[in-house]
Specification:
- InterPro entries: Dimeric_a/b-barrel, YCII.
- Keywords: Signal.
- With 154 residues, the chain is α+β, with helices and mostly antiparallel strands.
- It has a domain of 101 residues: Alpha-Beta Plaits.
- The protein is 40% helix and 23% strand.
- It has a four-stranded antiparallel β-sheet with strand order 2-3-1-4.
Length: 154
């Protein structure tokens, strides 16, 4: 009896979902959607990178500072190439997570190639966990105004 009830409920739910009409967006801008690579829902795939403390803990402070300066410069280069969309540090946590990147690619292999250009990652000061992430295709649009936000530069 429970199986029949569950099957009936499932069929009714599927029929309801299938019968719903998609509502057209009156503000839809086809040119803009294509420019940003949006799907029909205004979304696209990215790669989310979680940076965490790496295995190399033996570098001198001067070397670590130099590698992190290279890390920041590399981030700037990736932004200029429209490959790095979002980046920022995380607050203290018990997982040794240090920061995030959202990379403008859906390919994990391409994301790994981008990370291979980072001196702090290459030196194992930072390790990276990569995930496919589905988010707003408009995310890169904020970069057009981002450089006007900070009073100071890193």
């Amino acid at each position: 009896m429970k199986r029949i009830l569950l099957a009936t409920l499932l069929m009714c739910t599927c029929a309801y979902v299938g019968a719903q009409e998609k509502k057209a967006n009156p503000k839809y801008n086809e040119k803009l959607a294509k420019e940003y690579g949006a799907d029909d829902y205004g979304m696209k795939m990215y790669v989310l990178v979680i940076l965490k403390t790496g295995s190399n803990t033996t570098e001198t402070k001067a070397k670590t500072d130099s590698l992190f300066a290279g890390h920041m410069a590399n981030m700037g280069k990736l932004v200029q190439q429209h490959k790095l969309i979002v980046a920022g540090p995380l607050g203290k946590n018990d997982k040794s997570y240090r920061g995030i990147f959202i990379l403008n690619t859906k390919s994990l292999d391409e994301a790994k190639e981008m990370l291979a250009t980072d001196p702090a990652v290459k030196a194992k000061l930072l390790d990276a966990e990569l995930f496919n992430w589905y988010g707003s295709a408009a995310l890169p649009a904020y970069l057009k105004v981002d450089e006007q936000m900070g009073k100071y530069k890193f």
